[in-house]
Amino acid sequence: MIFVTIRTEKGSCRTKGTEKETLPEILGKQGIFLRADCGGNGSCGRCRVRFLRGASYPDRQEQEIFTREELEAGWRLACRTRLKEDCEILIEGGELEAADGTAREEDLEKDIPARPHGIAVDLGTTNIVMQLVDLGDGSVRETYRAANRQGIYGADVISRIKASGEGKKEELKRIAKAGLLEGIRVLTKGHARKVSRISIGANTAMVHLLMGYSCRTLGVHPFLPLNLGPVRMGYQELFGDNRQNAEVWIFPGISAFLGGDLVAGLYALEFEKKEGPVMLADLGTNGELALSFRGKILAASAAAGPAFAGGGIEQGSEALDLIWNLRKQGRMDETGRLKEPYFSEGILLPFGRRYGQRDIRNLQLAKAAIRAGMETLVLEAGIRAGDLEEVYLAGAFGCGTDVQKAAEIGLLPAVCADRIRIAGNSCLSGAVKYLLDPQAAMTAEAVVRASREIPLCASRKFSDLYMEHMGFES
Questions:
Q1: What residues form DSSP beta bridges with 258?
Q2: pLDDT one-digit tens code per residue, 380-432
Q3: How confident is the model at residue 188 (pLDDT cuts 50, 70, 90)?
Q4: pTM exceeding the 0.85 threshold for the entire prediction
Q5: Of 125, 117, 128, 96, nearest to 32 (Cα)?
Q6: How does pLDDT run across 145-174, given as a tens digit for each residue?
Q7: Is the pLDDT of residue 7 over 90?
Q8: pLDDT band per the 50, 70, 90 thresholds, residue 109
Q9: What does the H/E/C string look like for the chain?
Q10: Does residue 97 have a pLDDT over 70?
Q11: d(CA 335, CA 95)
């Protein structure tokens, strides 16, 4: 047993762990969750802690992130640290808080109007976004954002599915519920404001992890979910908490990799009503694509990984800007290869992070998968990209992307660049709309019935298009 003293600006506490646990896991038991965009592989350099005593020997990743002076001062990456002895750490800017969402006295409001409210949730792989909605006038009163603390078990769903199968299922469920409870606590001012409805949009893996479903068949071919239907239950039943009395509804999914987050977005954009052809590209940690044409919806999932959800850069759209600039400045060729000295040294970013050749290859693979997926759906519908009346971009990447740059590097078809619309967080929009629409559950299930998955892994068209769109167009 190893004892860890944790110091922050708000105070200090003492906890214990074992050599088998990572430092983020030990901190998580105290409700302290450090940002880790890279999913815990040490490449983003964000989970910085300072050891006042008991520091481990720095590994190669830490030696690249920190200067010699910083290492001597005790700075380490939490995700790279395996404790061997009792230690004391300092987390600058950190905050000790209850992981179960316990209200703090200063959060309570003495006079809150007794108006009906609901909470809409986008439970994403990388981030959780929640909004408090006035059910009387339909207005969004407040928004809450936080990192999905399950990131300590990996940046992508496959890593977390694997962790669930290796004995972390209950811990992943606890973290998911704690993250939602904290958002609810903040939005309701310590539960002084009551809510009657909560709607959640999430991908299939996140639903399984939240509900504590077995992921045994979800992560291996033929990728069979335990449940794809809608989930309706009481707040107390889901959270084991009696401070609210609300109905919770979770959007249904289409398949293992086409989840309720996509269905929520299609519902928000009323795809079930569109004759089309129109397309939705929801680009986050997973790329979800849907094409509505003549009352039918063709949908596909294209692996994007963290390339479009951040991947060590603040936003995936910033990675696109960087790639575009590298091409325009002649520092990278059309194959994606950096020229010297950038090939050897990478591009220096904030937080000491270097964006290198491996990062470019990851984005290149994601770009090719998304573009090839879009083209495959177009061919399946028997049309051309130029026939698309509208293309909606949503998700962590879609919210801030420069459409022209995306077309110039080959992510989006240039032929329909003037018809691309930014849809923002379409999953959250669908969750908000659900709270206000008495027919929402029926409509969402109609979206699922109208949808047909096109498995890209078995498509020869996709394979050919994937190779065709691997390069960066000028």
A1: 255
A2: 999 999 999 999 999 866 666 788 888 888 888 989 889 999 888 999 999 99
A3: very high
A4: no
A5: 96
A6: 988 999 888 888 889 999 999 999 999 999
A7: no
A8: very low
A9: CEEEEEEECCEEEEEEECCCCEHHHHHHCCCCCCCCCCCCCCCCCCCEEEEEECCCCCCHHHHHHCCHHHHHCCEEEHHHCECCCCEEEEECCCCCCCCCCCCCHHHCCCCCCCCCEEEEEEECCCEEEEEEEECCCCCEEEEEEEECHHHHHCCCHHHHHHHHHHHHHHHHHHHHHHHHHHHHHHHCCCCCCCCCEEEEEECHHHHHHHHCCCCCCCCCCCCCCCCCCCEEEEHHHHHCCCCCCCEEEECCCCECCECHHHHHHHHHCCHHHCCCCEEEEEECCEEEEEEEECCEEEEEEEECHHHCCCCCCCCHHHHHHHHHHHHHCCCECCCCCECCCHHHHCEECHHHCEECHHHHHHHHHHHHHHHHHHHHHHHHCCCCHHHCCEEEEEHHHHCCCCHHHHHHCCCCCHHHHHHEEEEECHHHHHHHHHHHCCCHHHHHHHHHHHEEECCHHHCHHHHHHHHHCCCCCC
A10: no
A11: 45
CB contact set of 328 (below 8 Å; sequence gap of 6+): none
Q: Which two tokens stand for residue 288?
A: 């979800």
Q: Could you tell me if residue 244 is left (phi over 0), alpha (psi between -120 and 50 degrees) or otherwise beta?
A: beta
